[in-house]
Amino acid sequence: MFKIKKTGIIASFLALTALLTGCALGGEQAVNQTKDNEFPQEVTYVEEETLEQTPASTDEVESKDEAQVEETVQRELYLFDKNGYVVPQMIPLPKTKEVAKQALEYLVEGGPITELLPNGFRAVLPPGTMVNGVNLLEDGTLVVDFSKEFANYKAEDELKILQAITYTLTQFDTVKKVKIQINGHDQTHMPVNGTPINQGTSRAIGINFDNGEVVDVTNSKAVTLYFLAQNGDNTYYVPVTRRIDKNVKNTYEATVKELIKGPDPRSGLYTELHDDIALIDEPTYKNGTVTLNFNEGILNSLEGTALSQNIINEIVLSLTEQDGVESVAIKVNGKEKLLTDKGVEISSPVSRPKSVNTGSF
After folding, report:
1. Do the Cβ atoms of 146 and 134 come closer than 8 Å?
2. Helix and strand totals (H; E) in the chain
3. Residue 361: inside a domain
4. Is residue 212 in a domain?
5. Helix (H, G, I), strand (E, B), or coil: what is residue 212?
6. One domain for residues 40 and 146
7. Which of 10-24, 145-159, 162-176, 302-316 comes out lowest in average pLDDT?
8. Nearest to residue 311, comparing CAs of 291, 288, 294?
9. What three-state secondary structure class fits 296?
10. Residue 172 gets which letter from DSSP?
11. Same domain, 156 and 259
């Protein structure tokens, strides 16, 4: 069965204290049992039982010929923004049995995503790409068979396309990694620039790389940070993988410091965390919650009493990318009850939202 990842990839952040923990997809899949080296061209998954969706009209249908309202579900699709970053966007898609195949089909340029693309975004897969079939193996590997048109992309887009495919499909809990075929043939490397993919890719490959000052990959580890981007009046969050010293004592503290350091000045991204913000205690972890105690620099400079919603979002999204972290408790000088700049009281740990960039926070 497919289930939506709690990280998937996100509803409204205005309700951050109530949001969160993830959206599960239930249901059974009808998949022919095959050996690991035998992948069917077409695999059908039975309808999901539990979905976050926009329900069809509940009005009584007076006639069988009357038009029916199409049910939709929110899917997290990773698309290219105007700066070329791979960015999650929540898109309402028609309800279907073949959720993974559909998600890929909506990544194709000129395909059904065209009328649904947010302003400033574009699809990631080459025009004409067909998804011949998908097959979920027992170890959580999803084998995806593309048509030959899949190889018609620019070399400089290869890594980003691989990231978009991997992150889109691993929004489903049962998908741990993704293996690519072209017309039924296993691919050990991406077809244009030769990026190794071997036995499959997972979110461990990272996204939108920013190595910062670290050049020694062997002695570093990856953290994912969420920075802000602007397109007209629309503000959205961009995940960036940055490498930090693997010997840092407290990864949570290091993550906050990287957020304060901000993105590369040339990136087109920005952060609302600034140099006056500092942790006054070492972050602690207990039962899935990281507790952070900041100085007053984190409060809104105009009000002096409120936390920026964007700052909260950047912190929560970044820290909940780390294994085992489900929520973040934010204190200021030890004070737990705080207000956001939206007037919402925060008196308990803030969980990760179900999805990022829904268009309303």
Report:
1. no
2. 4, 18
3. no
4. no
5. coil
6. yes
7. 10-24
8. 294
9. helix
10. B
11. no
Which residue is listed with tokens 């978009």?
Answer: 164
Does one domain contain both 163 and 242?
no
What residues contact residue 262 under an 8 Å CB cut-off, 6+ apart?
227, 270, 271, 273
Give CA–CA dist 208/237, Å, rounded: 12
Task: For residues 169 and 237, state if they share a domain.
Answer: no
Same domain (yes/no): 197, 298: no
The C-alpha atoms of residue 159 and residue 155 are separated, in whole angstroms, by 8
Asked if the model's pLDDT at residue 187 lies above 50, the reply is yes
Phi-psi region of 310 (alpha: psi -120 to 50; beta: other; left: phi over 0): alpha
Biggest CA-to-CA distance, the chain: 68
- β-strands 131-136, 141-146: how paired? antiparallel
200 and 228 belong to one structural domain? no
Structural domain range at position 254:
220-351
Q: Collapse the DSSP code of 96 into the 3-class scheme (helix H, G, I; strand E, B; otherwise coil) and give the result.
A: coil
Rounded CA gap, 254 and 249, in Å? 8
- To the nearest 10°, the Cα dihedral for 18, 21, 26, 30? 150
Residues 6 or more apart whose CB falls under 8 angstroms from that of 79 comprise 86, 87, 89, 107, 113, 117, 118, 121, 122, 123, 124, 164
Give pLDDT tens digits for 28-62. Answer: 333 333 333 333 344 434 333 322 333 444 444 44
Assess whether 224 and 133 both reside in one domain. no
In a domain, 267, yes or no: yes
Query: Parallel, antiparallel, or unpaired: how do β-strands 284-286 and 289-294 relate?
Result: antiparallel
Tell me: do 26 and 96 sit in the same domain: yes
Global confidence as pTM: 0.80
